[in-house]
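The instructor's notes for this session suggest beginning with a concrete chain rather than abstract definitions. Hand out the sequence below and ask the class to guess, before any prediction is shown, which regions might be ordered.
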Amino acid sequence: MGLQEKTELYLDLYGNSLVRSASSKFVESSVTSFIRMVTDEDYLKEVLPMLDLSLLKFKERDFMEGIFKFWGATDAKSKEAYPIDQFWDGRVRTYLGTRYDAGKNVYDMDFSMKLKERAILLDSREYAIWRKTGVGFEVRDGVYDSPNRTLCSGIVKMIGGSKRLARGYWVISCALPIFLTVSSVLSNLCMSYETG
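After discussion, reveal the predicted structure:
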C-alpha cells in the first residue's frame, strides 16, 4: 500500500461516518491481527514493540476483543446493528433541536461566524456536507456506503429497568475532526512560504 492509499485510509477511518468499501474491507481483514495483539503479548512485542498492554486486566482485554470482533463482523445482521446514518441524524437532531429544519442555514451560519477565518482551506459546502452526513473527507470519487464501525462506542443505559449495553455514535455532531486545526496550520505555512 502506497503513501497516498495509506493517507486516504487514515482520513477515511478517522473523519468519516461512512467509508468506502475498500476501507471497510481493510478493517475487516485487520481484525484477526488486532485480536492477536491484545491476547498474545509476544506477538504484540514483535509487531508493535512501542505499545505496552501489560497493565490491562483480562476483562479489559476481553472488551477490546469484543470491539474488534464487532469491527470485523461480516454477516448481514451485524452490519444492520450499526446504522450510522440514523445515529448521525439523531445526534444532529439532538444538537439542533428546534433548528433542525433550518439545518442548512445553521451550518452556513456556524461556518461563517466560527470557522471561516480559521479554516481557510475548508469550503462551506464541504462543511455542510460533513455536518449533514458525517463524511468529512471525500477522496477520489468513492462511494461512501459502509458504516465506519471504528467510530462506534458503547454506553450502559437503563432499558426497561435493567442495565444494557447500547452501541451507537455518541460524539457531538458539531465537533469537527482535528483536521481543521491542521488545515489552519498548513494554510498559514503555505501563505508564509508563498510570500516569504
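Then share the key points. The longest strand covers residues 153-159. Residues 121 and 186 are 9 Å apart (CA to CA).
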